[in-house]
Amino acid sequence: MSVQQRIAARVAPHIPRGAVVNLGIGIPTLVADHLPLDHAYLQTENGLLGVGPTPAPDEVDPDLVHAGKQPVTARPGASYFSSSASFGMIRSGRVEIAVLGALQIDAQGRIANWAIPGRPVLGVGGAMDLLVGARTVIVATTHTAKDGAAKIVSEATFPLTAQRPVDLVVTEAATFRVTPDGLELVEIAEDHDLEWVQAHTTAPYRVAIDERGAVHA
């Protein structure tokens, strides 16, 4: 299993049954492959409620894509609507959970996920609306960038997407809960340890688990 799929699999247990969920571009879209078909109602901001798992190559419908223009499937009973109606759902709080990717997460749990200084920018897309409108926001990201630099940092050097902090950060190595007092480390993946997390995280955080992996309140 790829690192990206592992992260998506680690996010799936945080999706409650029956929730309306928006999966952002990149790793978040893979979460659909790790949920039972009838577990949640997946929404994409280009106008589909009832997104299914990634189609097999011979099942791709070129007219059926998510907001990142990658092919998707539709569950039985799925509904289609305009992009403006979709954003109305998001902005009015009808999307319960958003799963977003991130370039950086700062010590307050705010994310930068739409622009890298010096590189061409297409626009912020729906991430800004999802951060403001979704009731709960989960970040699904690799723990470090391709060059090995930490993504969970004391202060973001990329432009922030919104001032609202996210609620949970899930990487291949660890899970952090975002609280009013900052980040809390609440889980470490089986193939990683606290020393690795400490070496690859520059933001301050409180360790909220003991040596047996139990989470402290």
TrEMBL record:
Keyword Acetylation assigned: no
User: Which InterPro entries did the record assign?
Assistant: 3-oxoacid_CoA-transf_B, CoA_trans_fam_I, NagB/RpiA_transferase-like
Any idea what this protein is called? 3-oxoacid CoA-transferase/3-oxoacid CoA-transferase subunit B
What are the recorded GO MF terms, alphabetically?
Answer: CoA-transferase activity
Q: What organism does this protein naturally occur in?
A: Pseudonocardia thermophila
Q: Which family does it belong to?
A: Belongs to the 3-oxoacid CoA-transferase subunit B family.
Q: Which UniProt keywords apply?
A: Transferase
Q: What is the lineage of its organism?
A: Bacteria, Bacillati, Actinomycetota, Actinomycetes, Pseudonocardiales
Looking up Gene3D superfamilies in the UniProt record yields: Glutaconate Coenzyme A-transferase
Query: Pfam families in the record, alphabetically?
Result: CoA_trans
